[in-house]
Amino acid sequence: MVKVYEINGVRPVVHPSAYVHPSAVLIGDVIVGPRCYIGPLASMRGDFGRLILEEGANLQDTCVMHGFPGDDTVVEVDGHIGHGAVLHGCRIKRNAMVGMNAVVMDKAVVGEESIVAAMSFVKAGMIIPPRSMVMGAPAKVMRDLTDKDIAWKSFGTRQYHDLAIRSMQTMREVDALLEVEPDRARIDLGPDMHAPKDTK
Considering the entire predicted model, what is its pTM? Predict the structure, then answer.
């Protein structure tokens, strides 16, 4: 059962095609669009500003979204938010990626098809141009992204589209096995879900 809480008469909205892990917490003015994936222990605390995940976005394990009163925090279509990232009052544009444990602050905008590297700190108000690689604390634009870079990012996001479907169809709470069974199966993602050699 997903942990969803109303506050001040406003409750979260989750599209039926989105997957939200049961340990994630959604509070108040939260809007989760179609085909989104929200991972374990993610927090979307819409008790001040509105939080929006647009179609196909993912918010991975232990991510936090929050914002100031009256502001929207938005991850646009196919936005990809890596494990442990924090988004506060910012906008992540279409097909952009925020790496693991990165922080993006108030009024910052991560441009379309840009990548914020893991552990980076994007300061308040920073406007990142489209197709940029950004890294550091404070974050700086390091270079333009290539078509190959963007293809790699898009491939990873498609894996999360698939994960949302697989999670809805097959994930269930069970008791752990006490030992490894003989010929233990591996998770089969199919041939289309393995990274092509030229994008590694």
Answer: 0.92
